[in-house]
Amino acid sequence: MVKKINPDELQKIVASIPMISASASRLLQISAQPDHELMDVVNLVKTDANLTARVLKVVNSAAYGLVSKITSVDRAVSYLGEQVIVSIAIENCAGELLGKELAGYEAAGGELWKHDLRAAIAAREVVIQSGADMSPDLAFTAGLLHDIGKALISDYLHGTAPDAVEMISSHDSLDYLAAEEQLVGVDHTVAGYALAQAWQLPEELTAAIRYHHEPARAQEAFRPLVYAVHLGDSIAMMGGYGTGSDSMRYKLDPGYADYIQINANILANVMLTVDTEFEKLSESLSDSGEKN
Amino acid sequence: MGQIILGVGDFGCSNNPDDEIKTFALGSCVSVIFLDPKTRTIGMAHVALPDSTINKAKATEKPGYFADTAIPALLAQMAELGCDKRGKGIIVKLCGGANVMDTNDTFQIGKRNALSIKKILWSYGMGAIAEDLGGNYSRTVSISIAAGQVTLSSPGKPSWQL
């Protein structure tokens, strides 16, 4: 018998997850401000010795192959760029959560984080290559965090993957989101939203976590971003990087066309870029990890 | 047993009965499988996109990535193991090419991959005798060279043969 997650239980789960660090929280706030500068990121990194050490380790890792070592935070941040810094900060404080095995989805450890990185790159590339009027950096960050709720409900979904798959193929559930709700009472976007609120994430990111499968329900101001994440998520799954049993079992909302102009050619180029950039990013992050 | 793992855009073949060829999580990608009964050679390509004209440099570096460059590349590699270079006598199986639910034309890359592959196979006078294409789920494929058996799996489903 699967245990249902009622609102009290959900709050308990959220309370059991460690808070993100103050510097990561501040970094996400900065990233969500439309007029921020890279210098704001540099100054933030400097306030956190642990983050500084990680950033310097990544920039000097074999993946970047620098001839001379970078020792200043200013140079490291401008060399790596905001998106890599955000990835490092999130991995640093939520790595355990995002790296865990998703038994409820029959996904091995690391699959969620890889999916998140791919979705982040894809959301960014959708924005850049379609010329949509929004921040590629923010699309990237929202992509990294969009599925965080899966890590919260996965244990409760343990053993349910065959049922969920069957419920969808027999049309008892419209998609995997509906199946999660039917099985444990809460889907991964609702669980993620509860965590985003506890973490006091910027409302843009909270909206992307809550509505990435139902972008039309997001507040108008955030809808372009939420659609970018919606597409980034789909592209990650299409590229073979889902999170197990739920992969591809979500609906595409064609309403993206009101905000994002993308044709088959642009999509093919986005997928190609995601493959290349993912290799680079994951190599640089894991490289530095091994040296710890 | 030797395991030949193919990533996205990789292709490979073997006639060693101890080997197994495997590729993980085909989302919209399509796995093209060539079985040559005469030489007992099996080859596979993990095709990501239908058409190499969008990036010629990538096609040169990784011909298995695109449908139109993957098939000639796989045939050429299998010819080195004694198979017919135009694919005569080779049995074809196809799997993958999934789509997300309610997809629109633009996002039907899985379908476009499959169509492009079939068109190119046709130009060689080849066609698939078995296929497991489309749907809304990701597939992992493995083939044992000794048995020539194609096994598919997907999280939440029991594995099946093609």
Would you spell out the secondary-structure blueprint of this structure?
The complex is a heterodimer of chains A (292) and B (162).
Chain A: H1 7-16, H2 22-32, H3 38-46, H4 49-59, H5 73-80, H6 82-99, H7 111-130, H8 136-145, H9 148-153, H10 161-169, H11 176-184, H12 188-198, H13 203-211, H14 223-238, H15 264-290
Helix pairs in contact in A: 1-12, 2-3, 2-6, 3-5, 4-5, 4-6, 4-15, 6-7, 6-8, 7-8, 7-14, 7-15, 8-13, 8-14, 10-11, 12-13, 13-14
Chain B: E1 2-6, E2 11-14, E3 19-26, E4 30-36, E5 41-47, H1 56-61, H2 67-79, E6 91-96, H3 109-123, E7 128-133, E8 139-144, E9 149-154, E10 157-161
How would you describe the overall organization of this protein?
The complex is a heterodimer of chains A (292) and B (162). By secondary structure, chain A is mainly α. Chain A has 15 helices and no strands. Chain A is globular. The termini of chain A are far apart. Chain B is α+β, with helices and mostly antiparallel strands. Chain B is globular. The mean pLDDT of chain B is 97. At the A-B interface, helix 10, helix 14 and helix 15 of A face strand 3 and helix 3 of B.
Based on CA atoms alone, the radius of gyration of chain A comes out at: 18 Å
Largest sheet of chain B: 5 strands, mixed
Fraction of helical residues of chain B:
10-25%
The portion of residues forming beta strands of chain A comes to under 5%
Order of helices and strands of chain A: HHHHHHHHHHHHHHH
Query: Helicity of chain A, in percent?
Result: 55-70%
Mean pLDDT of chain A: 94
Q: Quick summary of this structure?
A:
The complex is a heterodimer of chains A (292) and B (162). In chain A, 63% of the residues lie in helices and 0% in strands.
Provide keyphrases for this structure.
heterodimer; A: 292 residues; 15 helices; 0% strand; B: 162 residues; alpha+beta; 5-stranded mixed sheet; 21% helix
